[in-house]
Specification:
By secondary structure, this protein is an all-alpha fold. It has a domain of 29 residues. Helices cover 93% and strands 0% of the residues. The protein is elongated.
Amino acid sequence: MFLLKFLTSIILFISKSSLSFLFTFILKGNFKDFIKIYKISKILYGIFIKRVIYFTN
């Protein structure tokens, strides 16, 4: 149960930080750079989640 709460807090933190990233990049006008960073972070986050699920099972 603790692990589930921990994972949801990580997911919420990442989604909030990506939203703030998006706003700063839009304000600066670097939307293409944001898309690149977002894709890379999404791939890394997917790998992280797969490893966590693998280790919990």
